[in-house]
Each structure stands twice: as C-alpha cells, then as structure tokens.
User: What shape does this take?
Amino acid sequence: MKRADELRFNEDGLIPAIVQDAASKEVLTLAYMNRESYEKTIETKETWFYSRSRQELWHKGGTSGNTQAVKGIRYDCDQDALIVLVEPSGPACHTGSYSCFSPEKAEAADRFSILNELESVIAKRQAEMPEGAYTTYLFREGIDKILKKVGEEASEVIIAAKNRDHEELKWEAADLLYHLLVLLREQALPLDEVLEVLKKRHSESD
Assistant: This one.
C-alpha cells in the first residue's frame, strides 16, 4: 500500500475513498480520508474516515460494531482517489442497509453474471442478517451446517445425474452452486479468485 505522502490530497487535505465489498464487488459507500485517517486505516487494517460535517476522524463501526476489515486499496492513475476493498462485518449505511447506494443499482446488472449477483445478495444477507431468511439461518448455524448442506446438495446432483433426470439435475445443480457461494462467503473467499484459477488453467492449456 502507498504511503500518504505518495497521494494527492485536495485543497482541503482530503481524498475520496470508494468502499467496495472485496467479495461481491458491490460499492458500499463513498467517504473521505485525510492523511491521518488514511494512515490509521493502513495501521489498523480497518477503515477510518474524516467527517467533513463534524471535522473529525471517525472509525467505521467504532460505535456500532459494523467494522470494515481492509483487504486492499487501489489507487487511480493520478493518485487522488481510492478504492478500498473491505470485508464488512455489518451494514455499511447508517440506515442499516448493506450499501449506502440505492438497490436500483441492480439496473446495471448487465455488467455482472448471475453468480456475481447471487454473491452480492449472499453478502448482503450476511451483513444485515434479516430474520426469516434462509441465508441468515445458514450463517447463524455456522460452518458445520454450511458444509453439511454443500455435501447434501452434491449428493443430490450425483443422484440426479445417475438417474439421467435432467430436470432434477438442473435444480439440484442450482442448489449446489448457491450453497457453494455461501461457503465461499463464510470463508471470505471472493468468487473472482476461484474464477481466476479457472482462467489461469484455461490459458495454460491453450
């Protein structure tokens, strides 16, 4: 990560920081950092920002517990804007929403595959833990329950394939993919990293 003196802060001593879920790639919020909050973010590996209204530093989740573990920082070509990749432990927005941006953002879904969309929904469920949601249930039950479901769904896929039941197979395969994405989220492993392995294998086989 770059040192603060390598960045270009504006005339107010601030730099915009776009916060993005490292796994789902969904944009969570736009905030600002000054030199001190940037350095504290690097030091603590959690997001710190500068409040323009209160004119003071603030630690995201310092009061609510909804901290954001920093997984990486990307810098634009002019070094005057940041993308902060995080693993959120709760909602990013003060309203209690997973993201500060409107859910209408889904209108831009043509940029993402259905797997990326589903990964984003799973990440939102983990952050907000809405009552009655099946994904919430899985995360509350923990890794053993998630692993059990992955195993069960894999078995169902095998049975459907063995029986040459294509209708059943497509439903069971969809269930398996969903539970596998839940497992990846629980392990904080972005789907993109798995896809990169496939891409690398494909390029090596050419």
The radius of gyration is 20 Å. Residues 4-88 form a domain with the Ubiquitin-like (UB roll) fold (CATH 3.10.20.810). The beta strands are 15-21, 27-33, 48-51, 56-59, 68-75, 82-88.
